[in-house]
């Protein structure tokens, strides 16, 4: 099954709805509306049918996934009542396919690692082969396919990173890799947007990425559930910039498997329903590797076999109303503290 979310108008303002993608990706089914129809056909009152359907299919897909097997069972049953709840796919507005409680982005494709290191002049870190690297990203700016991405004013190098995202299906703590397999709900396209010039300065502070990453993450166009896509090895993808194919990628040759990534996150921590774990940028899946960068007016498409096409128009420059003033440096040339 392919699941996503759309935004629809309502008397109470814009609302997000969970949908299933059907008919060779040509229609979407509003699962709450469809399930309510099924319940009414079995004798439920309209109010009760709506109440039960909305509890199983809320605006949050993470909350829906947290219901466990009952969620997918109800989704399959809802498709029996899809006739009155179907919409042409080109008539709806998508938002991020899932609203993750936490975004963690990994690094596990050696081809991308080699390309990145050659461009940046750094050396590989042996630790990346001992434990899976990842950073945590903000969940406040997640975008769906077709949504316009404002161009951050503080960068001259807007870049993309074409990844496969793992969506977690259930809570897990201190999992083994074998146990983690059953915790994978499905897979999606994940775009770890980057302000490359800013990233260089931020990483030098030793605190990880901040404004170079948290302005945007792309998730979608939908999630393909694990029963339909049991694994991601062997997938091929294409990067299109303004309709021109500028790169091809493959999801093979990873250092750590999907299950190992999920298990590692859970060690002394926990994975939660709806968590998004990026498997890392595939080789030649970023503009840095291709000597390409984005500008306002560009349209980027990430096309992955068996998953879909994630499309992002780049909007105009968005200027923040405030920026910090540089402070006096607090150390002298001998690293003696002289201020603050």
Summarize the topology.
Layout: E1 2-8, E2 15-22, E3 27-30, H1 31-41, H2 46-56, H3 61-65, H4 69-78, E4 86-88, E5 93-95, E6 103-106, H5 110-120, E7 134-137, E8 142-143, E9 149-152, E10 158-159, E11 161-168, H6 177-180, E12 184-191, E13 194-195, H7 196-203, E14 217-225, E15 236-241, E16 244-250, H8 258-266, E17 276-286, H9 287-290, E18 299-304, E19 308-318
Parallel strand pairs: 6-17, 8-14, 9-19
Antiparallel strand pairs: 1-2, 1-5, 1-14, 2-3, 3-4, 6-7, 10-13, 11-12, 11-17, 12-14, 15-16, 15-18, 18-19
Helix pairs in contact: 1-2, 1-4
The level 1 CATH classification of the largest domain is: Alpha Beta
Assess the beta-strand content as a share of residues.
25-35%
What coarse outline follows from CA principal-axis ratios?
A: globular
Structural class: alpha+beta
CATH topology of the largest domain: Fumarylacetoacetate hydrolase, domain 2
Instruction: Kindly state the percentage of residues in helix.
Output: 10-25%
- Count of discrete alpha- or pi-helical segments spanning 4 or more residues: 9
User: Mean pLDDT across all residues, rounded?
Assistant: 96
Supply the CATH architecture of the largest domain: Alpha-Beta Complex
Number of strands: 19
Largest sheet: 12 strands, mixed
CATH homolog superfamily of the largest domain = Fumarylacetoacetase-like, C-terminal domain
Measure the end-to-end span.
Answer: 57 Å
**Number of structural domains:** 2
Radius of gyration: 21 Å
| Strand/helix succession | EEEHHHHEEEHEEEEEHEEHEEEHEHEE
Low-confidence regions: none
């Amino acid at each position: 099954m392919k699941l996503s979310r759309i935004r629809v108008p309502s008397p109470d303002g814009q609302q997000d709805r969970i949908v299933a993608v059907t008919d060779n990706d040509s229609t979407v089914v509003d699962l709450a509306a469809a399930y309510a129809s099924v319940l009414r056909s079995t004798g439920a009152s309209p109010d009760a049918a709506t109440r039960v359907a909305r509890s199983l299919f809320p605006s949050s897909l993470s909350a829906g996934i947290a219901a466990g097997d009952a969620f997918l069972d109800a989704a399959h049953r809802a498709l029996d009542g899809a006739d009155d709840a179907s919409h042409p796919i080109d008539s709806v507005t998508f938002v991020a396919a899932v609203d993750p409680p936490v975004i963690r982005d990994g690094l596990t494709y050696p081809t991308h690692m080699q390309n990145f290191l050659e461009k940046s002049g750094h050396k590989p870190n042996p630790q990346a082969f001992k434990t899976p690297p990842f950073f945590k990203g903000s969940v406040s700016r997640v975008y769906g396919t077709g949504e316009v991405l404002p161009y951050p004013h503080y960068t001259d190098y807007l870049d993309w990173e074409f990844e496969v995202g793992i969506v977690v299906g259930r809570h897990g703590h201190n999992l083994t890799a074998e146990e983690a397999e059953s915790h994978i709900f499905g897979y999606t396209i994940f775009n770890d947007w980057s302000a490359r010039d800013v990233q260089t300065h931020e990483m030098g502070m030793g605190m990880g990425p901040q404004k170079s990453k948290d302005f945007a993450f792309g998730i979608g166009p939908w999630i393909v559930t694990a029963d339909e896509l049991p694994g991601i090895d062997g997938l091929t993808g294409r990067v299109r910039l303004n309709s021109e194919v500028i790169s091809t990628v493959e999801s093979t040759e990873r250092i750590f498997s999907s299950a190992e990534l999920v298990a590692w996150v859970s060690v002394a921590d926990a994975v939660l329903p709806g968590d998004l774990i990026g498997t890392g940028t595939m080789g030649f899946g970023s503009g840095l590797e291709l000597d390409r960068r984005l500008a306002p007016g560009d349209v980027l498409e990430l096309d992955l076999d068996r998953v879909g096409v994630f499309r992002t128009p780049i909007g105009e420059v968005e200027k923040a109303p405030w920026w910090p003033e540089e402070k006096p440096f607090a150390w002298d040339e001998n690293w003696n503290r002289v201020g603050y």
